[in-house]
Design a protein that fits this description.
Number of helices: 10
CATH architecture: 3-Layer(aba) Sandwich
Strand order of the largest sheet: 1-2-4-3-5-6-7-8
Number of domains: 1
Radius of gyration: 17 Å
Distance between the termini: 19 Å
Helix content: 40-55%
Order of helices and strands: EEEHEHEHEHHHHEHEHH
CATH topology: Rossmann fold
Structural class: alpha/beta
Bound molecules: D-malate
CATH superfamily: Alpha/Beta hydrolase fold, catalytic domain
Shape: globular
Number of strands: 8
Strand content: 15-25%
Largest sheet: 8 strands, mixed
Length: 269
């Protein structure tokens, strides 16, 4: 199945997105600090009757030839959600399943909070509903310092050991290199803005008991950033949600176990 890359010219800016298939829509929202390309394995396995759309969150991969340069100084998670709603309107998608991994999940919660009528279901992968702890917020500022000193390369070096699960760290050097390339392709402005947006995100826990759409929580049992138990507790707080744990996968479960992830998605659509 062909994956198309397109640029949507919205009133205030342009956004690159990847898409494949046709029918009912799933919008895939990427992790920090990756880009829409994170979803290529899923875009190559779209179930019949579905259209998968994966946008870059604002500023990410912002250096393409037809991409309007953006210097987002102060983004919020809610801003990213507004961007997705704007893209959905542009593409005539009135409602969609929203799938988000980690930061993409934070944006999915914001989108649900803001416009539940546009959300027909949720796939929450390797994400959490809680806000950052005080110590976590301090660590975010340390990450900004690292970014200022060493650019996206420094952030990649710091994050890669946590993004990929321990089992694959040694056996999949190509995967690690591919993720590193996704990270360093991003402008530092976009990375800085996202760190601060994540740091200041609200606690979405109060939303969980009121989510009345089909929800699947997918998690890697070797996730070093968000423990599986936390994902389990999140799933238990959402009425009717089910948890699918992928054995041997870490934080980037859709890249580490693309087939297992796609099968989990197919079961949930
Ligand atoms: C992500 O993968 O999006 C990040 O790990 C999110 C976070 O650091 O909270």
């Amino acid at each position: 199945m062909g994956v198309r890359s397109a640029v949507a010219h919205l009133p205030t800016r342009s956004v690159r997105y990847l898409e494949a298939g046709s029918g009912r829509s799933v919008i895939w929202l990427h992790a920090f600090p990756l880009s829409a390309d994170q979803w290529l394995p899923q875009l190559h396995r779209v179930p019949p009757g579905w259209r998968f759309i994966a946008p870059d969150l604002r500023g990410f991969r912002g250096s393409g030839p037809s991409f309007e340069a953006i210097t987002p100084d102060s983004m919020t998670i809610d801003d990213y959600a507004s961007d997705v709603l704007e893209l959905m309107a542009h593409l005539d998608v009135s409602e969609a399943v929203i799938g988000g991994l980690s930061m993409g999940g934070y944006v999915a919660f914001a989108l649900w909070h803001r416009a539940p009528e546009r959300v027909s279901g949720l796939v929450l992968a390797n994400t959490r509903a809680t806000a950052d702890s005080p110590a976590g917020r301090v660590a975010r500022e340390r990450m900004v310092d690292l970014l200022e000193r060493e650019g996206a390369e420094g952030v990649a070096r710091e994050m890669l050991p946590k993004l990929i699960g321990a089992s694959l760290q040694a056996s999949q050097p190509d995967l690690i290199e591919a993720v590193r390339e996704l990270i360093v392709a991003n402008p530092t402005d976009a990375i800085r803005a996202a760190i601060r947006a994540i740091k200041d995100r609200p606690d979405s826990t109060p939303l969980l008991p009121r989510i009345d759409r089909p929800v699947t929580v997918i998690h890697g049992d070797e996730d070093a950033i968000i423990p599986l138990d936390e994902a389990r507790a999140m799933a238990e707080a959402i009425p009717g949600a089910r948890l699918i744990a992928l054995a041997g996968a870490g934080h980037l479960s859709n890249l580490e176990d693309p087939l297992g992830f796609s099968l989990a998605v197919q079961k949930s659509l």
